[in-house]
Automatic annotation (TrEMBL):
Listed name of the protein: Iron complex transport system ATP-binding protein
A cellular-component GO term for this protein: plasma membrane
Compartments (UniProt record): Cell membrane
Membrane topology: Peripheral membrane protein
GO annotation (BP), single: iron ion transport
UniProt cross-references to Pfam families, sorted A to Z: ABC_tran
Amino acid sequence: MTTGLQTRDLTLGYSGEPVIRELNLSIPKGKVTVFVGSNGCGKSTLLRSLARLLKPWDGSVWLNGKDIARQSTKKTARELAILPQGPVAPEGLTVLQLVKQGRYPHQSWLQQWSAEDESMVQWALEVTQMTSYSERSVDSLSGGQRQRAWIAMTLAQGTDTLLLDEPTTYLDLTHQIEVLDLLFTLNRVERRTVIMVLHDLNLAARYGDHLVAVRQGQVYAQGAPENILTPELAREVFGLECQIIPDPLFGTPMLVPQGQGRLLPPNTLTGTGD
């Protein structure tokens, strides 16, 4: 397995409380890796640290064989790009203006806006199908369009590694699939390394080559979805009883949660069944 991002004895936390403890993790290069786990387990904290947005308490993060803490922010931004959860653009900012911000790491006093910058922006708009929206304000777009605009800005950075925190949050199912299809295509066609946090285990198993299940600040299991997604994992990581069956379309593991559903008798809560 070729490794791009690694953590070595990484410890992270907030306000005196550790969230990630002495974590050693290797993320495969050129694959789609998905972090899964219950709320508060440390997924987003870990992603922020991988992008050099959160300073470790101890340990280190390495990218392509180098400690990212020992290189400049701009150099890191030329190698990896992150899309945080629920980003907000300044009021009135157009899609084109937003996407152009992705080229900031490549600008300097000596290197101003270039033909390469323009080409990358136009490519990012085209691949995300946002060219026709370039003059629209970001805040006037639908949820799916807005997310594609932010992804376009991330792509315009021209990095080999993309980190995305909950890229499908607040989107309906149609737009979730639209965004994940785009990221999957970028991985398969452009060979970009994609690392993201997802809540939906079934979508994680469908799109991820490599799952990392996080539990209480540690990796509970990692590997191909078909190798690690089991009822035991769902029970230990999510506190959920379930069955795992093959996805009828893709053959990937599909989680079917147990629960009352229609088994619950009518008026059970009121006690006035008739």
